[in-house]
């Protein structure tokens, strides 16, 4: 049998952890292998526990930090060479050295003060492996430049700790997002937004929930109901201040929920929309109607969703009556021109990461101009034009939303944006389009929070350091 010779020092890779190059000390005097790790944090369900940790793979470059995660195999006491006993997390992963790849157990411990970020113990060696204690680097050499040349599409995908902010844990969208995350090896916690409370301070701010401080999440998915927009966006802002990526930013949620503000933003970005007017004084009612071209026209409460609080006034008298009723309730509202050529139809464009990933055409009931599915409308697949696609993407970008449901009307003079939704429902558009939108959203999150090791300036290759 051909022997596989190792020196007392070798380069190796741990591809399952996203570590393409580690300089290790091979020590047959130690039974257990050990890997440098800090910020170690267990997470995930009890039946599939995970552990996340950070590592500085290059001892001379503390700015190079990689975040790793792996299934947690065990936690056991390990006695080091100086006689100290430490309770360590244990993982199992594959090691690659030369043309050999094999599974090993590794314990996680802080080796920041040591010259080697990894120690390869005797339990990791296969039967045909021989260690020559007087020699080093018997296997092919690597170097730390490997961390700076990884193509974007080939980056290691680690398990993420995600949270969804919602008060509806059992609705379709929440369930599908959880399924998509878990299918890709991540964990997703459901957090009731209204039960969060915050410790606000300059350094080390916190979000608490049910008597415990919430851990650091790689990303948070806000799905905040319209009734708690103000408090919900405050919670999102707190996560943002802690450096957590939020799929819908607090500013985007706030602007999209305020119909007046949203239309002002659309107008500022020269995005087509129905002619819109707004006033508070009852004396301006007649002028409002004239500004949008007269009846028929649409009146919308500023704080409404799913087609509620939206009324079609077909005559000037009906418009005055509805305006009077809204003003009597001291409710703020918009007046918009009615796009007749839309014929009770609109188009929902689902934008993810600056791309329209799915579309559907929604039709209202025969006696209802509103096309919302929540109001009994129906939906079908639809092809959109290049212009409609560009308008949808531009509208989502104007609202600063990475994921958005953009509703368009097909007007005689081009597409007109009705609304931009920061928490679009997934059920209707997934079933109509046949696409896994929730999976695409999780893929987008992975791309946003993937580790991007900094590339030091003025640094040459360091072969065999």
Overview of the molecule:
This protein folds into 4 domains: 151 residues, Cathepsin D, subunit A, domain 1 (Beta Barrel), CATH 2.40.70; 96 residues, Rossmann fold, CATH 3.40.50.20; 64 residues, Dna Ligase, domain 1, CATH 3.30.1490; 109 residues, D-amino Acid Aminotransferase, Chain A, domain 1 (2-Layer Sandwich). 21% of the residues lie in helices and 34% in strands. The protein is built from 9 helices and 27 strands. The strands form 6 sheets. The chain has a 9-stranded mixed β-sheet with strand order 2-3-10-4-9-8-7-6-5, with no helix packed on it. The chain has a 5-stranded antiparallel β-sheet with strand order 25-24-23-26-27, with helices on both faces. Strands 13-12-17-18 form a 4-stranded parallel β-sheet, with helices on both faces. Helix 1 crosses helix 9. The longest helix is centred in the middle third of the chain and has 13 residues. The protein is elongated. The C terminus is likely disordered. This is 30S ribosomal protein S6--L-glutamate ligase.
List keywords for this structure.
4 domains; Cathepsin D, subunit A, domain 1; 9-stranded mixed sheet; disordered C terminus; Dna Ligase, domain 1; 465 residues; 5-stranded antiparallel sheet; 9 helices; Rossmann fold; alpha+beta; elongated
